[in-house]
Amino acid sequence: MTGDGVNDAPALKAADIGVAMGITGTDVSKEAAKMVLADDNFATIVAAVKEGRRVWDNLRKILLFNLPVNFAQGTSIFWAYVIGFQAPLTAIQVLYVNMVTAITMGMMLAAEPAEPDIMQRPPRRPGKRLLGKLIMWRCLFVSILIVILVLGCYEWGNATGLNINHRRAEAFNVLVFCEIGYSLTTRFIKRTTLHPRVFRGNRLVFVSIGITAALQVALTYIPGLNWFFSMPEGMLGVQWARVIVSMIIVFLVVELEKALVDPVLMPIVGPVLDFISDHSPRWLKNPKALVSKRARKRQEGP
Q1: CA distances in angstroms from 186 to 19, 65, 158, 205, 212, listed in the order given
Q2: Between the CA of residue 61 and those of 54, 107, 139, 155, 248, what are the distances in Å?
Q3: pLDDT at 45
Q4: Is 213 in contact with 183 (CB distance < 8 Å)?
Q5: Residue 126 backbone phi and psi in degrees, to 5
Q6: What's the burial of 206, exposed, middle or buried (CB within 10 Å: 0-12/13-18/19+)?
Q7: pLDDT at 287 over 60
Q8: What secondary structure does DSSP assign to the chain, as a single string?
Q9: Dist CA 177 CA 217 (whole Å)
Q10: Separation CA 276–CA 17 (nearest Å)
Q11: What distance in Å separates the CA atoms of residue 80 and residue 5, rounded to the nearest whole number?
């Protein structure tokens, strides 16, 4: 609702978002409104909505990236102990992934431009959570995928007679390069990344990926530095081949999941996630969502 006069104040107050004119609007309308349009240009409202949707999308993309990656780090070590392996990652390697790779990839996703269809989407429902069903599902799915690849390559090295330093170097690089492959798919939440648009719109993508990959090579081969990260002997060529293949597997499998998530996976997984949400503690739920749910029930009646 937009308005500029005293008589518009009640409607501005009652609207979900009341917008008052900053130049021609009265003080009463400005006080009643939730937003004041400084230049009195209606096109600014459209630009503000687009920017708000872009920020929301990018927050979701950062969550979609960081949560599975962080879970994969911890659960790789947990399942290694459960299965009976030695720890595939050292404490300093895990700390490095948390402090460096997660930040570089997160900054890259925060700078993503608005997706082409962003203004064709319907408005979000009131009380919609950032941590929705899609993020919970993909967090579980991707973390399991990365853990399988990390532990699989780690044990493959053991089966071929590699020592613990070689195997830990491979596990560390598999984890980071899987993150790189996954970060590319996360640029578009549901749209495919197998498209020329992946090369446009965000130069930070390739800067971040280049820096992360260069740092991995440096940590693996620079004397002294590789000793500090428990990789004093570097890696063999066949190990790098497994690292690259693992990165491609993550990229392609998540792209396939994107194509299947709405028509196939969510009808199966959605009820399970709804059950978990309904039986989770009240402090984990969005209070606005609870209020809106009660209001809908009152409207529907007994």
Answers
A1: 34, 7, 32, 11, 17
A2: 10, 11, 11, 32, 20
A3: 86
A4: no
A5: -60, 135
A6: exposed
A7: no
A8: -EE-SGGGHHHHHHSSS-EEETTT--HHHHHH-SEEETT--HHHHHHHHHHHHHHHHHHHHHHHHHHHHHHHHHHHHHHHHHHTPPPSS-HHHHHHIIIIIHHHHHHHHHTPPPPTTGGGSPPPPTT--SS-HHHHHHHHHHHHHHHHHHHHHHHHHHHTT--HHHHHHHHHHHHHHHHHHHHHHHTSSSS-SSSGGGGSS-THHHHHHHHHHHHHHHHHHSTTHHHHTT-TT---HHHHHHHHHHHHHHHHHHHHHHHHIIIIIHHHHHHHHHHHHHTS-GGGS-HHHHHHHHHHHHHH--
A9: 11
A10: 32
A11: 67
**Phi and psi (nearest 5°) for 19?**
-115, 120
CA angle 203–248–167, rounded 5-degree value: 110
Task: Note whether 277 and 132 are within 8 A (CB).
Answer: no
Rounded distance between C-alpha atoms, residue 207 and residue 225, angstroms:
23
Tokens (6 digits) for 171: 């596990």
Could you report the per-residue pLDDT of 234-266, keeping only the tens digit for each? 899 999 999 999 999 999 999 999 888 877 777
Report the DSSP beta bridge partners of residue 284.
Answer: none
Which tens digit of pLDDT belongs to each residue from 136-159?
888 899 999 999 999 999 999 999
Please enumerate in sequence order all residues whose Cβ is within 8 A of that of 37, keeping only pairs 6 or more positions apart, or say none. 2, 19, 20, 21, 22, 25, 44, 45
186 backbone dihedrals φ, ψ, rounded to 5° = -75, -15
Backbone dihedral angles phi then psi of residue 21, each to the nearest 5 degrees: -80, 130
